[in-house]
Amino acid sequence: MSTYRRVLNEISANSKRFISGKRRKYPINSEDAEKLPVFQYTVSKKEYRRVFAWGNLQTGALGIPALKRNESIDKLYYLQSPKRIGFGEKFEVRTACCGFGFSVFAVNSNTNDKIYGCGINTDSQIGYHEVRQHKPLGLIFYPQPIPLPFLSPEKSRVLKITAGRAHLVVLTDEGIFTLGNNAYGQCGRSIIPDEDYSRSNYINRIETIDGKKIVDIECGQDHSMAVTEDGCVYSCGWGADGQTGLGHFRNTPEFTRVKGDIESEKIVRLSCRSDFVLALNNKGEPDNFAGSCSTVAHSETHKNATPIGKIKSIASGGSFCVVVLVLKLNNRRRPILIPETLFGRNDFQPNNIVRKVTCGLNYAAAVTSLGDLFIWGRNKGACLGLGTEKDQYFPLKVAMGGHVQDVFCGIDHTIAICKPFI
């Protein structure tokens, strides 16, 4: 028993000595300790942004080569999770857009090379590029410059870029530039029969429409739209499903004003991914046209969208639309509230709300006020970035390496511009 007690006493003494610790020979002066310098880690520049991409690698739209060295062509794969692309580290990317198998980035530059494109280029939708004379490249795996004929390259700025199936529209402070396929007049110029778009180096510039400044643009699958400074909407291109809203089903090679119910409204935003157009006025009220042959803007059967409250963001996909209210998010034909908890709003984050939505052809994405990205829909080409190729039937958060500022959806790939965490 005495041995047992001796062991316990030794353990107790050692514990006390360990807890109390050994006193310093030269105690630290608390006042001097406060004066010691604190190392300040560097933070990112205010204008620095990271660019992430995911989805189908085979088209080159991600700006990442599909094949590695000594890798078989049979191992082409999808990028199932967001990957930081090197192009965003070399240039200050301001905005971007996703077309059908190609991507375009707008960068901060004092030259004519203010936009860069990669991906499918069968119709010169991302400019004319060749390695050998008269041998245009139909597939580009790394972003290449697309020179635009600016009048003042040093002062001009790219405000927005948007893309359709095989054409591109660029909004600048000098007007809009259109390039690519013009088979239906979607570039806002006359249709030339049997035009060889793969060898075309022509860029159409439209300074104003009816003498009015252009403030916004949007592309559908094969048609284009523009909003002028007074809130009027103009459209051109393919009108077989009424998506131009001009009261007929013919192709229109020039920007023509859309009338009907929106004629008396001041439109501030348009959204379209395929052949269904959603318009938002300055009062936060939506209007829609196209999508079916009975909903052309001039048609007697045309009806306004169901009143659901004031709207701050809209998005239109191939056969669906999503809108964000001031306090709520609604979707589907008859607005049905998506639970806010699915977008990260809870007791720990009561102020986390959806601030912006956007749509691909068959999927949708939402960006919250905390910089989180939620996505759902058909997962073609792993375009959802959730680490799987399965479809997602409700909003799910995407793991991103930064605060999401903007997201751009295509048909089978997605691009996000993020602000670093630090």
TrEMBL record:
GO terms for biological process: positive regulation of mitochondrial translation. InterPro entries: Mitochondrial_GEF_domain (IPR053035), RCC1/BLIP-II (IPR009091), Reg_chr_condens (IPR000408). Gene3D superfamilies: Regulator of chromosome condensation 1/beta-lactamase-inhibitor protein II (2.130.10.30). It comes from the Eukaryota. This is RCC1-like G exchanging factor-like protein. One of its GO terms (cellular component) is mitochondrial inner membrane. The lineage of its organism: Eukaryota, Metazoa, Ecdysozoa, Arthropoda, Hexapoda. One of its GO terms (molecular function) is rRNA binding. RCC repeats lie at residues 49-109, 113-174, 174-230, 371-420.
